From TrEMBL:
Record-linked PROSITE patterns: RHODANESE_3 (PS50206)
Family matches, as Gene3D superfamilies: Rhodanese-like domain
SUPFAM superfamilies noted in UniProt: Rhodanese/Cell cycle control phosphatase (SSF52821)
A Pfam family of this chain: Rhodanese
Official protein name in the record: Sulfurtransferase
Lineage of the species this protein comes from: Bacteria, Bacillati, Actinomycetota, Actinomycetes, Micrococcales
GO molecular function: transferase activity
């Protein structure tokens, strides 16, 4: 079963600001949240959750992922927008949520920081580069 689709960071933000039931779930690791930053959910009334897809530093899948999603208020029929670093883990998260009957589930293309650019660094694309709300955790 395929997830609902891919959204650019701006399309994701537009969905989150126009649909009061939509929730944002950042599936990066705790280390990424702490050192890179997180989306600022204040403008969307706190409708966001931090739920690791894989754990750091082991890289092992989070066995509590679906349980933690439902604890964060993700349900069937409630749009959920998944975000990771570059848009890879968030695809897997959207697929897992869809398979569990949650969502519609969307993936944010380019993630929070995007891929590595020509200078060897991230941050040239994605949520932050699009100028969307974010903050240091």
């Amino acid at each position: 079963m395929s997830y609902a689709g891919d959204l650019t960071p701006q399309q994701a933000w537009d969905l989150l600001t126009s649909d009061q039931s939509a929730v944002l779930v950042d599936v990066r690791t705790d280390a990424e949240w702490r050192y890179v930053g997180i989306p600022d959910s204040a403008p969307i009334d706190g409708r966001a959750a931090l739920v690791e897809w894989v754990s750091y530093p082991s890289g092992r899948p989070n066995p509590q992922f679906l349980k933690q999603l439902t604890e964060a208020g993700v349900t069937a029929g409630r749009p959920v927008v998944f975000l990771c670093r570059s848009g890879v883990r968030s695809i897997a998260a959207a697929q897992a949520a869809t398979a569990a009957g949650l969502g519609p589930a969307y993936n944010v293309l380019e993630g929070f920081e995007g891929d590595v650019g020509p200078d060897g660094h991230r941050g040239h694309s994605g949520w932050r580069a699009a100028g969307l709300p974010w903050r240091q955790a």
